[in-house]
Amino acid sequence: MEEVFVPAVGxxxxxxxxLEWLKNPGDQVTAGDVIAIIETDKTTMDLTCETSGxxxxxRYAINSEVPAGQTIAVVLxxxxxx
Amino acid sequence: MTTDSKxxxxxxxxxLLIRNFEETADKLTLxxxxxxxxxxxxxxxxxxxxxxxxxxxxxxxxxxxxxHHHTIAKGMPVNIVMAELFTKATxxxxxxxxxxxxxxVENGHFGGNGIVGAGVGIAMGAAVGIKQMGHKKVAxxxxxxxxxxxxxxxxxxxxxxxxxLPLIIIVDNNQYAVETFVERVTGGNDIAKRGAGFGLPxxxxxxxxxxxxxxxxxxxxxxxLAGEGPTFINALTYRYYGxxxxxxxxxxxxxEIADWRSHRDPIDRFSAKLISEGALTQADYEAMINxxxxxxxxxxxxxxxxxxxxxxxxxxxxxxxxxGASK
Lengths: 82, 327
Ligand SMILES: Cc1ncc(C[n+]2csc(CCOP(=O)(O)OP(=O)(O)O)c2C)c(N)n1
Ligand SMILES: [Mg+2]
Known about the structure:
The structure holds 2 protein chains of 2 kinds.
Chain A: E1 2-5, E2 15-21, E3 28-29, E4 34-39, E5 44-48, E6 53-55, E7 65-67, E8 71-76
Antiparallel strand pairs in A: 1-8, 2-4, 2-7, 3-6, 4-5, 6-8
Chain B: H1 5-30, H2 45-52, E1 60-62, H3 68-73, H4 78-85, H5 119-133, E2 139-144, H6 151-162, E3 167-173, E4 176-177, E5 180-181, H7 182-185, H8 191-196, E6 202-206, H9 210-225, E7 231-236, H10 254-264, H11 266-276, H12 282-305
Parallel strand pairs in B: 1-2, 2-3, 3-7, 6-7
Antiparallel strand pairs in B: 4-5
Helix pairs in contact in B: 1-2, 1-11, 1-12, 2-9, 4-12, 5-6
The site of thiamine diphosphate has 15 residues of chain B, from strand 4.
């Protein structure tokens, strides 16, 4: 199981806003796919997955704030559950 | 030259410990556990371990913003280093310093710092003290390939030469200063020649060969102890990750990184040498990798469980105590 999370990249990055989900729960995703788009205080950023599998639940709604470091969804390998 | 088996194993273990520490800390930084910026030294282990294994525990070092590898090789327990990255009270700087201000003055670690090019000057000052007091030890100042373009570095080198100070200058030359390739910004394109211009023994060495780094440092240390003054060592190495954690760099190719990793990796090279000489078995090596992973896991656990500094201690360490701010 891979956790797709908001990376804490700035020196002092706080919350980000989840702008858009590009994949839905149950979708088959491939490594490198953009899962969601977030907006930081400086820029927008694509969140990609590193593994292939089935996307789990959306853990945040569109336009909600997500703290840096938090997981927004997981990618499940065959046979795995959330 | 065959390697002493005991020294070889300890040296290899140190490099593995640093690599695992950095890769673990990198992930934790992305998760928001490490405030204030973090510079990963993966790829540069042989410079740190080669130098430190040639020193005596009482020798002094002063380092840079990229200092985890120097600090661990100098002997600071990994749980204390990790706790400082997490800014916890149990860290070496009481959680005030984070990644860039690791220090342990009592054990000869005069600190990392955020000022590019400051390490050599700090070590040079320590070397003045060592000489004045007639101590039998040396000081080592680390600087990056970017830092060698700062004036303060060369003022310190010059002072060390004219006063014949027991100083060793190590350029942890990882080829880049943030996004800038060393050759683009180094006039004359020969850092060791620059050193030689100040009139001290000056070498460019293979910083991915831990034994070479060890040998040159040992010889420099012996010269310093014999009263012959400082030595300048430009150690060629490479950092595998971005300048700071989370960097999305577009300034070098993936092929370049892969080439350094696959052909010159200091851990792969040294482990292969030890195994081919019979100093280490494959099983020993795997056991070593596992024990290192366990040690780092415990360090993370220690850091996670440690408390943040108490607010009531906020003035501790602000002054020497004379003004009554510190306890
Ligand atoms: C005096 C000063 N100038 C600029 C900076 C910003 N800065 C931080 S690290 C860095 C690059 C340093 O490169 P190098 O000396 O090669 O060390 P490395 O990061 O490669 O270990 C710069 C320019 C700084 N911290 N201090
Ligand atoms: Mg550099």
